[in-house]
Amino acid sequence: MGKKVYAIKEGFNFQTNEKVENKIVNTWSECLKYVKGVKGAKYKSFEDINSANKYLSEGSKLLKKEDLNYPEDCLHIYVDGSYNSSTEMYSYGVVAVRNNIVEYIDSKASKDSSKRNIRQIAGELEGAIKGVEYALDKGDRKVVIFHDYEGICHHATGFWERREQSSAEYYEKMNKLMNKGIQVIFVKVDSHTGDFFNELVDEKCKEKLLIQSDKVVEKWLLANSLNVSSEEIKQEIMKLAPKGEKKINVINSSDKKNEIGETAFEDVIKRYNENPKEAENLIFNLSGEEKNNFIIYLLDKCVQ
């Protein structure tokens, strides 16, 4: 067996205060110098330099929501996790959205029993598993998982080396689920940037741990409308945003084909006059069919 080499996709040089990218080193001690204490460091050991170079040249399967290159014609699931250091409890959250209608919410808190305290990461990994399980239970064959922790994607695909028991178990569970015939597309959402569904799942996680939130969900609902599939889902959201009750519309199964209506479109126009950036985010979250309906709605107003 030859001498190992170490490929560093992302690290940091604390001596020069510079980011380290796509670097190959010959010893573990040298590798450690660039990855120890670096959040999100990406590196891997190889038996030969050709394999190391191949690893550095491979692209990640991680997409970014802002790039708009993910499918819209399937179930969308937002996942997140949180952690309460005073109780050493973690929580996971799952919010399922289909055609811009919230159809499912799940969240739960548990004690962190891992050998190494991985804080909210435990919840984020569990939320992703729960999300794919839900999609399979509903008979879906394709699902988009939106997440803010990159490991949701990289540990599932094997792009990151699995050094912890938690990531190894997650890899096994996720791949077992994916082998049941469902296509899972991972999309990263930057946390706390105003993406409504990401903020919703974040606040559901905090709720389970009795952590005070910034009430972003309630603030959003005071200015915008939201469609949900049942009264139960509405009540779950009202726990976070009691003042937003009138803006949460329960869509009956017979009405879902209409998706969002004129009231919601009027909200978008009103918000655009007040805050164009926020309105752009609303339009961004519409499904393809809803965007078409919105264009028709605007054209109708022009000819009136």
Give an account of the 3D structure:
- InterPro entries: Ribosomal_bL9/RNase_H1_N, RNase_H1_N, RNase_H1_N_sf, RNaseH-like_sf, RNaseH_domain, RNaseH_sf.
- This is Reverse transcriptase-like protein.
- It contains 11 helices and 11 strands.
- With 304 residues, the protein is α/β, with parallel strands linked by helices.
- It has 3 domains: 5-58, Ribonuclease HI, Chain A (3-Layer(aba) Sandwich), CATH 3.40.970; 66-250, Nucleotidyltransferase, domain 5 (2-Layer Sandwich); 262-303.
- Helix 4 (151-157) packs across helix 5 (165-178) and helix 9 packs antiparallel against helix 10 (276-284).
- The chain is globular.
- The model is unreliable at 254-259 (pLDDT under 50).
Sum up the structure in keywords.
Ribonuclease HI, Chain A; Nucleotidyltransferase, domain 5; 11 helices; about 40% helix; RNA-directed DNA polymerase
